[in-house]
Amino acid sequence: MQRRRRYSGWLVFLIFLSYHLVRAQAPIADSLLTSKTKELTEQHLVQPGDTYYRLAKLYQVPVDSLISWNGEILPAGKFIRVRPKVASDLTPSSESGSSAPVSPTNALFKSTKSKSTVVAVPPNTPVSTTITPAPVIHKTVQRVMVVPFDPYLYFSDADEDIARQSRVPRPQVRYGFRSRLSALLTPPGFETINLLRTGTNRNADSLPEIYKSLNYQYRNVTSSRFNPLPPKQKAIMSGPKTWFLKQKEKAGIATVQEATVAAEGDKYYGVTVKSPNFYTYYNNRYQPDYYLFINQFEIHTDYSNCLDRTTQDFIREFTVHYTIFDAQGNLIAGNKVKIPYVSNMNDLEKISRDNLGKIAQRILADLPPPQIPESEAAQN
Q: By its UniProt entry, which SUPFAM superfamilies does this protein fall under (predicted)?
């Protein structure tokens, strides 16, 4: 019985000792974990396809700061710095993690590893806790900011058929065309600021605010001087019908003219910026040289024009309205692209491959040729 009590006493003592050892090591583990977590949050592992614009929006830091910290090259698989050094990292601290109090009148003392040795710091020495701002890095290429169309300005009579054959929810058809067209609007020689390609919802969340700053209405087509439209040619009529019309004109018999699509063809669904601070805000945020707005996306099936009755194949048209402004809000081009297609093809992927690339190429043709930015030209 006494031996059992002795063992019980030793067991209680060991449990008590283990408990206090664990509590003594907990602050050390917490400090190591905090330090490791802090180190990881200040760095980012570059993934294939990462850009400085994506990382700037993800970590809410300026693009110029990221470039100044890590250089202009962004290699995949490398850790880069994405956070500024905080003030606590810039002030001296002891190895134990405790900082000495700062007094403006008395001398400052810094503890070393040996407690019996102190080093005196001259009094009234200012301790700097400010972070020097990163130098401004001038952009090396011109930039284009792409604003995708508002989902409410998407009109289609084919989404049900496309969704059924593609086996996707019906809303995904709309957003699929939206994201694919936006991804193709990458003009060569420019840096593209695409609000749907950042990999984060922060830019996408700003799109409703952009849409509130815009005003839409039908306007006359304005062709870009960099890609002028070909002149319209008058149709040369001949044959019995022409002779008959001429005889009616001589007799003074008027012919009723029906409205045609051509009379409507000189109009497009244009956009204007109604917010007075729009260009100031986004010029400072992204420094774009041009703004490319996709205003409206339409899919219309013409059931009066049948290509093949046996397969119920009709003409289906894709129409995209767009406007291009420069950084000062001057109109570069305002137009629409119309692509004819077939109605018996309802595969979302194939429709996108066959049509959206052509639409994007036609829109980008209205952009001015890329130039060297003024800041870069001044440096050279």
A: LysM domain
What are the extents of the domains in the chain? 37-90, 143-227+238-379
Residue whose structure tokens are 């400052």: 108
> Is the pTM higher than 0.70?
no
Counting Cβ atoms within 10 Å, is residue 65 exposed (0-12), middle (13-18) or buried (19+)? buried
Q: Are 121 and 101 in contact (CB under 8 A)?
A: no
Q: What is the pLDDT of residues 358-374, one digit of tens each?
A: 999 999 999 999 887 76
156 pLDDT above the threshold of 90: yes
d(CA 283, CA 171): 33
What's the token pair of residue 180?
């694919």
Strands (E) in the chain, as ranges, are 43-45, 79-81, 108-111, 118-121, 143-147, 154-156, 191-194, 214-220, 267-273, 290-308, 313-326, 331-342
CA diameter of the chain = 137
**Which phi and psi (to 5°) does residue 190 adopt?**
-120, 160
Residue 63 to residue 4: CA distance in whole angstroms: 71
| CATH architecture type of domain 37-90 | Roll (3.10)
**Structural Rg of the chain based on CA atoms:** 34
